[in-house]
Design goal:
The chain has 343 residues and is of the alpha/beta class. It has helices spanning 4-14, 48-56, 81-91, 101-104, 111-119, 144-156, 187-196, 231-241, 271-276, 306-310, 313-324, and strands at 27-30, 39-45, 61-66, 95-98, 121-129, 133-140, 166-171, 176-183, 206-210, 218-230, 248-249, 256-266, 281-285, 300-303, 329-332. The protein folds into 3 domains: 4-102 and 312-332, Udp-n-acetylmuramoylalanyl-d-glutamate--2,6- Diaminopimelate Ligase, Chain: A, domain 1; 111-128 and 218-309, 3-Layer(aba) Sandwich (Udp-n-acetylmuramoylalanyl-d-glutamate--2,6- Diaminopimelate Ligase, Chain: A, domain 1); 131-210, Alpha-Beta Plaits, CATH 3.30.70.120. Strands 5-10-12-13-14-11 form a 6-stranded mixed β-sheet. A 5-stranded mixed β-sheet has the order 1-4-3-2-15, sandwiched between helices. It has a 4-stranded antiparallel β-sheet with strand order 7-8-6-9, with helices on one face. The longest helix is centred in the middle third of the chain and has 13 residues, at 144-156. It starts with a helix and ends in an 11-residue tail after the last strand.
Length: 343
């Protein structure tokens, strides 16, 4: 039987927990990772109605984008929707797992790549790469060739690896030195591999932070359209493909759209990056009134709504799990959890 921890391992291979922001609470929030999976509900928000849907569909796992709990709960009296959701899940043996800003911070199979696919962007690059590169030195008495090969294979085959990945052997008279660079997020993977060769390593691996940015880890994405479009035509495409009721936007500061920056959820902190990289439009959400002035006719800000910007993350997560596991049912929630309504 497939266990909850097997699904977690698959998701965290794509978006390791170490990539989440400091304020976040991604991971297993409720439940036992050793439990066998009977079925999965995928959602953005693990509300009471979603938990009930899991019960009705005989699913014992809810995989959400947003954590239902961000900070410590001091009481479980059912006085708010967070407490009620947690109580409902625990009473019915429903596990809740969240994969939030760590899924925002990856180039491939993440929230932002999904948006780019929906609106037809290519040549995708991280808008604000993270400085997360480590160097390593390993002194080996033997088996250096095998360890070097395994390190290169394991790291280069990981979705988060980039051009920084490279491990080489330097042969000495008495021992061999392995040197390499890799994304910091893969330190656990590298350490585990080194442990398997522990008897051959003299003094243990030496890690050091170095200057550099990972090309596959960071906030937001910038890409280009295959063909330049008039602004109105692009906004029509955006509205149709992202299934939007409306788009709030700043002044039209350009005639055509070619380069597009995106950030699912609240991405206002990336505006200066989008402008600096020459984006014609920045697609995100949760802008406040005065923040729209920051576009300053240098770029178009398109606020499409928080739920709307991330809604296709539900299908993304379902597809990831469905492609790897077939012994249980997977459902995209039928519950609309968007708290914002339009009249």
């Amino acid at each position: 039987m497939t266990k909850i921890k097997d699904l977690i391992k698959e998701l965290e291979f794509i978006a390791p927990p170490s990539l989440q922001e400091g304020y976040d609470n991604s991971g297993l929030i409720v439940g036992n990772q050793e439990a066998s999976v009977t079925g999965v509900i995928f959602c953005l928000d693990s509300t009471e109605d979603v938990i009930q849907e899991a019960i009705d569909r005989d699913c014992n796992l809810v995989i959400a984008h947003h954590p239902i709990v961000f900070s410590g709960l001091k009481r479980f009296t059912g006085s708010d929707y967070v407490q009620r959701s947690i109580i409902h899940a625990i009473k019915n043996d429903i596990a809740i797992y969240a994969i939030h800003t760590n899924l925002d911070n990856v180039l491939y199979q993440g929230v932002n790549e999904k948006i780019c696919q929906k609106i037809g962007l290519s040549n995708l690059k991280i808008l604000a790469p993270k400085s997360d590169i480590l160097s390593i030195e390993i002194c080996c008495t033997n088996s250096a060739t095998d360890l070097t090969r395994d390190l290169n294979n394991a790291v280069s085959n990981n979705e988060l690896s980039g051009q920084e990945t490279n491990f080489t052997c330097i042969e000495g008279e008495r021992q061999t030195l392995i040197k390499g660079q890799f994304p910091k997020v893969l330190k656990g993977l590298v350490s585990n591999l080194c442990n398997t060769y522990q008897s051959s390593i003299s003094n243990g691996p030496i890690f050091a932070n170095i200057h550099g940015k990972s090309s596959k880890i960071g906030s937001g994405i910038i890409g280009i359209l295959e063909e330049e479009l008039p602004v109105e035509d692009f906004l029509q495409r955006l509205k149709k493909n992202m299934e939007l009721e409306l788009i709030k936007h700043t002044n039209i500061s350009t005639d055509t759209i070619k380069k597009v920056a995106v950030c699912g959820g609240a991405g206002g902190f990336l505006l200066s990056r989008a402008i600096a990289q020459g984006a014609d439009i920045f697609i995100t959400s949760d802008y406040k009134y005065h923040e729209y002035f920051d576009a300053d006719n240098k770029i178009i800000i398109a606020d499409i709504g928080h739920f709307e910007s991330e809604q296709f993350t539900i299908r993304l997560l379902c597809d990831i799990i469905s492609e790897k596991f077939s012994s249980f049912a997977n459902y995209c929630t039928s519950v609309k959890t968007n708290p914002v309504n339009y009249f």
